Amino acid sequence: MKHFILFSIIITSIFYADEKKGNIGFKYGFLGQMKSNPDSTVELMDGYVIHTDDKVRINIGYVKESSFHLFYIGSEGEVMMLYQNDPLEGKPNEEAKLDTIYASALHWSPLSDPPGDESFYLINSKSPLSYLTKLLSRYESAPNKAKIKLAKKIQVELDDLDPNAKADLSSIASRLDKPLVGGVTFRGDDDDELKDMSLTHECRGTGGIAFIKIVLNHK
């Protein structure tokens, strides 16, 4: 079925309305392909049960003047930065010409054993998360005993950004009326069908931070 483009949303105001108040926001798609049904793509949400070898993909869309980080804490407490992009000022590349950056922060990746909680932190901020990134850099080069201590520090810093733990921050996630692909919505018989680059939700935050934590229940 041929699709017809309805509209494009590469407008910064779609993501945050009032810069003076520190509002900020991003769009995302947290997608899954189950081993039991690999030809179908589903939306993953906090608490979703997922199994070994099921695949996960995370798409994002955010304004270029902001920073975006995707942190992952695995079932054994291991910490990874899956995606990092700071403001593009002074970077002469194609992305610098855009108002909004659309990216796959995590391409299709299968979950491996051991099972347990798989935590993903999507953070859009007006300023780079310099201290967190420094901690992660130390963590990556540290011996195993030191990694345990650094992982705890990273967890404290992530918790400190969580709007559920801070009275002066708030973030609200909501589902989009229709999935977007690269900032564009399509009309057709399968206009609700999820694609590899689909964005399905929006997260808006205050205080210069838009934050969402999604924990998958890996069985």
What keyword list fits this structure?
six-stranded antiparallel beta sheet; alpha+beta; 3 helices; globular; 47% strand; 219 residues; five-stranded mixed beta sheet; disordered N terminus
Q: How would you briefly describe this protein structure?
A:
The chain has about 220 residues and is of the alpha+beta class. Helices cover about 15% and strands about 45% of the residues.
Count of alpha and pi helical runs: 3
Q: What is the residue-mean pLDDT, rounded to a whole number? A: 83
The total number of structural domains is 1
Radius of gyration: 18 Å
Unreliable stretches (pLDDT < 50, length at least 5) are 1-20
Helix content: 10-25%
Q: Count the E strands.
A: 13
How would you classify the helix and strand content by structural class?
alpha+beta
What proportion strand? over 45%
Biggest pleated sheet: 6 strands, antiparallel
Global morphology: globular
Distance between the termini: 38 Å
- State the order of secondary-structure elements, H for helix, E for strand: EHEEEEEEEEHHEEEE
Written overview of the protein:
The N and C termini lie far apart (38 Å). The protein has one domain. Helix 2 (130-141) packs antiparallel against helix 3 (144-161). A hairpin with a 2-residue loop joins strand 2 and strand 3 (37-43). The chain has helices at 12-15, 130-141, 144-161; strands at 4-8, 24-34, 37-43, 49-50, 55-63, 67-73, 79-85, 100-110, 116-125, 171-181, 184-187, 198-205, 209-218. The protein is globular. The protein has 219 residues and is of the alpha+beta class.
